[in-house]
Amino acid sequence: MLYPKKLSSKKSNLLIKILLGISFVIAIVLTMINQLTTPEIHWAALVNSGMIYAWITVIYSINKRTNIAGHVMIQAIAISLLTIYIDYNLGFSGWSLEISIPIIIMIANVTMLILTIVSYRKYVRYAIYQLVICICSLIPIYFMFENLIKNYILSYIAIGISVMNFILTIILSARDVKEAVIRKFHM
Questions:
Q1: What gap in Å lies between CA 152 and CA 144, rounded to an integer?
Q2: pTM here?
Q3: C-alpha–C-alpha distance, residues 98 and 140, integer Å
Q4: How confident is the model at residue 25, as a pLDDT?
Q5: What distance in Å separates the CA atoms of residue 97 and residue 152, rounded to the nearest whole number?
Q6: Cα–Cα dist 70/79, whole Å
Q7: Which of 18, 72, 73, 182 is deepest in the core (most CB within 10 A)?
Q8: What are the pLDDT tens digits along the chain (187 aa)?
Q9: Half-sphere exposure of 102 (CA within 13 A, CB side)
Q10: What integer pLDDT is reported at residue 8 of this predicted model?
Q11: Handedness of CA 116, 139, 97, 158 (dihedral sign)
């Protein structure tokens, strides 16, 4: 069985620092865009909170060496349901479907990608969860066809990221994913 070449500890730490830096720049840019376009709505704070949540999850999983992929999947589903509930209680303007769920899907996929890169030996264990997240990422297509959302941009981006991330996982572990699916679903 062949595995990808192991990243050294120094390279892993450098990669994490670079990705943290990119996240920090994205947070600043989003805050600036928010202030320039819609200062009365603090949507950048929500997105930045999501990025912070993703980094806490990634750093926790790296330090604890546990299979956190299942927790990422469950949390993504739970947070999505929570945002729909909050939106519904606020009069259902649709922000949960147009903004929250696509962002949650993106964060879950980026978290899974980082876990796959950093935890090279466990990527097969993440593949099943990645498959479920990929399937859940297709739910915005239903919202589009039912005209429950008006702005499709974030949904398209979320679906694209999910599909690309899943393809990367398949490329890294095609045979191992097949064996894991057969084991998990008793095929």
A1: 7
A2: 0.60
A3: 8
A4: 95
A5: 10
A6: 14
A7: 72
A8: 555 555 566 777 788 889 899 999 999 999 999 999 988 877 787 778 778 877 877 776 676 655 677 778 878 887 888 788 778 767 788 888 999 999 999 999 888 888 777 765 656 667 777 788 888 888 888 888 888 888 888 889 988 988 888 888 777 766 666 776 777 777 6
A9: 22
A10: 61
A11: positive
DSSP characters over 96-129: IIIIIHHHHHHHHHHHHHHHHHH-GGGHHHHHHH
Question: Sign of torsion, CA 114 118 119 121?
Answer: positive
Q: Which long-range contacts (CB under 8 A, 24 or more apart) does 173-182 make?
A: 173/123, 173/124, 173/127, 176/1, 176/124, 176/127, 177/124, 177/127, 177/131, 179/124, 180/124, 180/125, 180/127, 180/128, 181/127, 181/128, 181/131
Distance (Å, whole) CA 62 – CA 57: 9
Asked whether the CA dihedral 138, 142, 147, 148 is positive or negative, the reply is negative
Decide: residue 84, CB within 10 A, 0-12 exposed, 13-18 middle, 19+ buried: middle
